[in-house]
Specification:
single chain; mainly beta; 14-stranded mixed sheet; two-stranded antiparallel ribbon; globular
């Protein structure tokens, strides 16, 4: 058992100018830009995080051991992810809008030609987008707990069943607020504050075989459910539902096998067959939730901007199916199953209730090691990623009214980030040869 003391002051700068924040958040009509150098929030001094863990041997019979383990604790985050946003605010950035293809929503009555004043120190009014935190902003934290039962199956094999839970508290919430109608010195306020929660529950099973006669294997399966209020985008309504990263089922398996040396009187055969090995990995999971966009709406009370979502039409299939040339992955979200709610109203379709595509991939490698001297070894590897060339799809167009609505628009590898798809899961089959020096 133990306890951790977390002290996370608001971030600052060692050289240069601090970003601006605001003073007087309790009343938008009298809110002002805080003086340069004002801390983004007050430091919290009582973030105490206790933890405890225990293990108990239920059965000590050799090769039939049973061990019960459990633990729990509090884990603080820094809350500083948003600390640098102010460098995009007054005194540090400006924006000019031009052309006829841009339209400003009625919720933001600013001139089309200029939406932020020129960069100046100190900034001049009307200020453009301002980023702020409440003075009493606190570090988010998670309460975690787990319980597992591990059973030995002979000398080198074990089976483990676990329950894992986590509750997030005081999580970050981003609100986009139009304050120009209350205070002509400002246009839009992006307010980062505490308030959201989340919870996660998972049942996990694992089979593990330690190295025995050259074979090592691991297989695991997780059934889980993750729920939260809203996600990472300021324009989404904060509704309780499936998290954006909620994956219900996730299965993985890995194997490593050192091929045995043949028993032969031929020295040539023994040398050519020595040092070979085989590695494999299999991964399969269900799809991530998909958030469906709708009308852009401004809450008349909070002035927060969000997408209103869609109305769900009863007794209409959520998906339509067809050949891959028409629907990548063989299906698309059915546009006929939804309709736009009246402007200013939120749709009745639950948040994140519809799922995208899952993923399945198998990777294999063949290797051979060549001992050179003492601990110096050269290893040659031939590796195949997605060896069966299984198609995996990622991003889905969620803009209702777009001709591509409901269709997959990218492979999974292209959807995961900025790296080359060759180095991401979910791409087409790829092969590589590698030579590794180990010492």
């Amino acid at each position: 058992m133990g306890i951790r003391w977390d002290v996370n002051p608001a971030p600052g700068v060692s050289k240069g100018l601090m970003p601006y924040t605001v003073a007087g958040l309790s009343d938008y009509s009298t809110m002002t830009l805080a003086p340069q150098g004002t801390p983004l929030w007050d430091t919290a001094w009582f973030n105490l995080a206790p933890r405890i863990g225990a293990a108990y041997i239920l059965n000590a019979t050799p090769e039939r051991e049973t061990v019960l383990r459990g633990g729990g604790g509090v884990f603080f985050d820094t809350g500083q992810q948003t600390g640098s946003y102010g460098f995009n605010g007054p005194g540090f950035s400006a924006m000019n809008l031009f052309g006829t293809g841009y339209s400003v929503p009625a919720a933001f009555p600013v001139p089309v030609t200029v939406s932020s004043p020129a960069i100046a120190q100190p900034p001049t009014t009307p200020y453009g987008v301002v980023y702020a935190n409440p003075p009493h902003f606190q570090s988010p934290y998670t309460i975690q707990w787990n319980l597992s039962l591990e059973q030995a199956l002979g000398r080198s094999q074990t089976f483990t069943m676990s329950y894992v839970g986590a509750n997030g508290r005081k999580l970050l919430e981003l609100a986009s607020i139009n304050v120009s109608q209350f205070n002509p010195q400002f246009t839009t306020l992006y307010l980062f504050k505490n308030g959201l929660t989340s919870n996660y529950n998972a049942l996990q099973v694992k089979f593990q075989r330690q190295v025995a006669r050259g074979l090592q294997a691991l297989a695991s399966y997780t059934w889980s459910h993750s729920l939260d209020y809203g996600s990472y985008n300021a324009v989404y309504p904060y509704q309780y539902g499936n998290s954006d990263f909620d994956v219900r089922s996730n299965a993985t398996a890995a194997i490593s096998y050192e091929l045995p040396q043949p028993r032969s009187s031929s020295s040539w055969l023994r040398i050519s067959a020595d040092g070979w090995g085989l590695d494999g990995r299999f991964a399969a999971r269900t799809g991530f939730p998909v958030f469906l966009n709708g009308n852009t709406t401004v809450d008349p009370v909070t002035r927060q901007t969000y997408y209103g979502g869609l109305n769900l039409i009863p007794n209409v299939p959520l998906f339509v199916y067809g050949p891959g040339s028409t629907y990548p992955g063989g299906r698309r979200i059915n546009p006929a199953a939804f309709s736009l709610p009246p402007r200013g109203q939120a749709g009745n379709a639950p948040r994140n209730f519809i799922r995208g595509f899952g993923a399945v991939q198998t990777d294999v490698a063949i290797r051979r090691s060549f001992p050179i001297h003492d601990s110096l070894t050269v290893q040659f590897r031939a590796e195949a990623f997605n060896v069966f060339n299984h198609p995996n799809f990622g991003s889905i167009n969620t803009s209702y009214g777009n001709i591509q609505f409901g269709k997959a628009t990218q492979t999974l590898a292209q959807s995961l980030g900025t790296l080359s798809p060759l180095y991401q899961q979910g791409g087409p089959r790829s092969l590589q040869l590698a030579l590794k020096l180990m010492f």
